[in-house]
Fold each of these.
Amino acid sequence: MSLTIIKPGLLDTIQDLGRTGYSRLGINTGGVMDRYAAQVANMLVGNDTLEAVMEIHFPGAQFLFEQNTLISITGADFTAMVNDEPVPLWHPIVVRKNAVLHFPKLQHGSRCYVAVHGGYCVNKWLNSYSTHLKAGAGGFHGRKLEKRDEIPFKESRIYFAGLLKPGKEFEVLKWHVDTGSTYLHPNEIYIIKGNEWDQLTCQSQQDMLEDNFTIHPFSDRMGYQLKGVDLKRNERTELVSSGVSFGTIQLLPNGQLIVLMADHQTTGGYPRIGHVISAHLPKLAQLRPSDCIHFKITDIATAENLLIAQQQELNILQRACLERLNHVVC
């Protein structure tokens, strides 16, 4: 069975954690923008973290569920509702066949994730379910989701109807995730110095760390263009194109910054001023146009410790979710 798109959203795609190992061929990793929220969405419904999820931007789509199923919604708060009744984020939720999920109002955040138990049954491209829009590959026919699309689910052996009370269109299961530490101080982003940091003038280095930068409306999954004080280099030397990654901060010729996001190119020739630490990429992914960013320099050891702590939290969470789900089903 499946879910059906009855009203398309702005940009809803099937994504996973991305395809690795193909940068040498010019194929970027892609995948979800908020890896933390996507992994938690899968954990809450008992999936492996590598399963595909649906990434939704506001205004989001409306979905009709063609079967009883277990879902979770994580990330941004778009006031998720099932048949006009609000449902909470970061919870597992059993929904009844023919229920409609929709997102009528933006509260905060930039993108949310919907996972279903078992995962979406879509084809892989280069070992990943992620939609590559430019290549027209991966995900659901290599494109964003449109009206009347039917997204099939993988087979489930759990009888979810038994968890629904008579007359109820959904049932929220009793465990949830506390995400306070991951999204704490959302506008404060830690970075480590890039290869060309020292090419900035002393004044520009100071400006970058003391001033706020605003995300430009033209920002997208490829990169966040930032508006702020013009930054200057000591010398205007040409650079050889080199590898870049999710979170690389480049200095454009006009003195403004761009932060590369999930669909970034594989190489770039602009100065790499810094790199957003991996543990703060989820916060960055949930910022919206016109939101402010304040950069803070940290060191590699701190960046590694924060990422390790975040991964340990995810490991504990995954075990706990499986135990709770097994207990409820049994």
Note: The chain has a mean pLDDT of 94.
Amino acid sequence: MIRLYSLIAAGLIAALLGGLGYMVMTGSQQAGLGQCRETSIAGGAGSIGGPFELVDHTGRTVTDADFADRPVLLYFGYTFCPDVCPLDTARNAQAVDLLAERGYDVTPVFVSVDHQRDTQDLLAEFVRFMHPEMIGLTGTEEQIRDAARAYRVYFAAQESDDEFFLIDHSTFSYFMLPGHGFVDVIRRDQSPEQVADTLGCFIDNA
């Protein structure tokens, strides 16, 4: 069963996202993409995303520039997550497959917020299970926090005396396009078909 976030976590998430609507305001550099959006973002789409340096599941150091040449569906989570992350990541993988059937090439990316437990081997096993083209990213705590901050992602480990601690985190997915950067958030209540339709619309109108 999907766990409820603590009141503190929920409040911080709401503050970081600029309110319940998490609305995306169309920037001038993204003219023509507004028809694909149903929501808007406080501060504009340009306020989300930015440079990062992480390590992929093969051990290679990568930056945001390595993904600038392709459409990317990005999600922040962790492999020990008992419920939300597997469901969201599997949904994203299904949407990517639906898009591939329609002739669109979108790369699914999973960024771990658990630098302590998500080793390269565990991350590689997780992403390969989810989708053969999925890329897993991790790094030091500072690197992960820098990336999360760029995408306005909240995460915090719950207090625990054992190794099976949980991590509260925001659950949006982020869609990026070449030449535009971040263009929209994907909510976790959207089905694979809805995600594929939305992403296809952005690609067609980019």
Note: The radius of gyration is 16 Å.
Amino acid sequence: MRPVDTNADQIPLVVELSAAEFRDRLQEALAIYVAAMGYPRGTEYHRAPMWTEHVQRSGWCGVGAVVPADPSTESDAVDRLVAVAYGYRGAPEQWWHQQVRTGLRHTGWTLDRIDTILDDYFELTELHVHPDAQGHRLGETLLLRLLDRRPERGVLLSTPEVADEDNRAWRLYRRLGFTDVLRHFRFAGDNRPFAVLGRNLPLGRSLSAGL
């Protein structure tokens, strides 16, 4: 892993993850996902094939946060992964893309407006911080790094609906300028309501009326 934009004394360190590194640390990443989402043990086995397939998609990139190992404690100590985020370029053949397009059409969006959103976007697929590492804006650091220098016109994500938008994820997305694209949407096979949020890229550019 290669540390990026971090100070020497900063713990944990934000690192880029190559596809190979992500696959090597897949079980660690999935354990963070299960802990952060409060899912039952064993959920990771169902998600592993999907995450493995995602790595092969066009424009995939990933970042993580690691707590450096203390070499004074164990000679074979390794860095501990405590947060992970990844995404890739959205495309019409992808299930998520198709679901969102259908949802937008059902809410009355015109095809031109839908195309404005879905023709050129980065899908923020996963962003998870282990509960033990939360509360230090680590998720924001990962998200900013992940979206840095992305070539797409915008970024989209889906997140579970929460009463009054009162959790860390919602506060992060609102703080970074994400706005509503689709609310209270139910993806096929999941009864939970989700929100689809988006904003323009790069992050320094203000959000346009089109998104």
Note: The chain is about 30% helix and 25% strand.
